[in-house]
Amino acid sequence: MAAARLALTVLVLMLAAVTLTEGLRGVGAKKCCFRFNENEVARDKVVGYIRTSQRCSKPAVRLNTVAGRQLCTRPSAAWVKELIRHLDAKSVPGGTSNL
């Protein structure tokens, strides 16, 4: 009886430890930016973007380019805000038209 109780206690503690460590990992992008691209990037060169995690010391937007590169940019830059609006509108059906 004591062995079963001990085994159950160990199992519960192990599950609690795993749950806690997984919860601390958080969600979102795991990479942070420390240097930023200040030059405006053409819309046709960008295919998507990812906002960095709130756990990063500096907020950033990572732009995914057609060439497969990722550029760190400042989310407060006017051209970055406009590019995000453009990319978000492209992802919504009927958001933009080529007509």
TrEMBL record:
Its main location: secreted. Residues 29-87 form the Chemokine interleukin-8-like domain. Keywords: Cytokine, Secreted, Signal. One of its GO terms (cellular component) is extracellular space. GO terms for biological process: immune response. GO terms for molecular function: chemokine activity. This is Chemokine interleukin-8-like domain-containing protein. It comes from Cyclopterus lumpus. The lineage of its organism: Eukaryota, Metazoa, Chordata, Craniata, Vertebrata. The gene is ccl35.1.
